[in-house]
Amino acid sequence: MDKALYISMTGAKHNMLAQTVHANNLANANTTGFRADLAQARSMPVYNGDGYPSRAYALTENPATDFSQGQLIETGRDLDFAIEGDGFVAVQSLDGREAYTRSASLQITSQGQLVTGNGLPVLGEGGPIFLPPNSKIEIGADGSISTIGDDALELIQPDRIRLVNPDLSQLIKSEDGLFRLENGNAAPVDGEVRLQSGFVEGSNVNTIHEFTEVLSLSRQYELSVKLMKSVEGNSEASARLLQSS
Amino acid sequence: MIQALYVSKTGLSAQDTQLSTISNNLANASTVGYKRDRAVFEDLFYQVQRQPGAQSTQDTQLPSGLQVGTGVRVVGTQKEFTSGSLQVTGNSLDVAINGRGFFQVLTPDGELAYTRNGQFHLNAEGDIVNANGLLLQPGINVPEGTQQLTIGDDGVVSATVSGQVEPQELGQIELADFINPAGLQAVGGNLFRQTAASGDPINGIAGLDGLGAIEQGSLENSNVDIVEEMVNMITTQRVYELNSKVISASDQMLQYISQNL
Fold first, then answer.
1. Cβ contact (<8 Å) for A27 and B211?
2. ipTM reported for the complex surpasses 0.90
3. Backbone angles phi, psi at B243, to 5 degrees
């Protein structure tokens, strides 16, 4: 049988993988701060020896993450903020290293520590941020936190949220969905990053685009399967020829 | 089998949870002292099919890899303790907290529960109780023959009893606050219980130490924003539909290959 069967098979298999990437984007169409993954197919030519170079296998990869801004959703909560334009909030991930996220719906633990919605400590200029009890919290446009405590006239400034804006080409999405720098280092603080308090940022998944991709991938998949079918037909035809002689 | 099926399934179940949160919020849109819930979503872990930055040869690296996400999950529902609007009722036993803090009531198991619902009543003994008959803590007893009951900004309850010139001071309503109110456990009946996440209650006098003042004759409305919930309902429904479409697209792919090969 012609090895074209295997080539169509890689096509179908990688269409399925790309389908999963788009399904994941659609599943996260309502996840705050989610950044869509892009998927692209690449040809992997395997031209060995003489003969007609026709062996190019398919390969799906995520070349990058879409970092465009998601829509802002007003919540009016003190501890929600959205980042305007580029920039990330630094959090401490489970392995103790610094990681970055766009999802900034914060909470306070019983110890007064500022954490993200899934419990990762938010980093300030001097590490994790702790807030005094009984306080009303204001988050400023540059990430500075001020609390109005026991005395209404006295504003306390416990810390400033660490906001960074590294080169997007250096950022990769890790397995836990957080972003990290490719070289594993911590990004420097960027004073230019601006926040909007009382808002959260929605997911930047374009559902129409994703769903069109899903449809086009299923058709492409059917084409690959059709090709497998015709390879089978070819091989049947040649078997018949050999039988009749 | 196609992983996309399971990924979309996580999308469907997360939207389902979101919809129940929205419907609970809408059902409680006129519950006094109700605080709206919000479902918090998180993307699930990623599976690395091809490691970005791995060596493709001794001198070159793969510029990009393939990481396939596995869907979404609801990490939790978050109570939003923004204040609701105050509604004036004129009833002397209706009180609202204008700011942070909770009223404390004694539940039948002897534990304290916390509430923002200030619709209080008197029981047969003259004790101040909530609508379910739970005693307000610290307990305040209103004597017989009370003409007028006054609750001050700081929670001091005084009564003008017929035949007496001077008002009689009955006690003071104390408020409790938590460092992380969102960590309280909602137990129904407008009540919350302390958890390890909320921290210990910090008792105080209304209007002091960052606690809100008590407003007599007012009630705090639910903080549910109907328009916001309706918009959330639309997006939830559409995302749900799209995820189910992906399931049927993946199903057709499987069907196609099983019928054609």
1. no
2. no
3. -65, -35
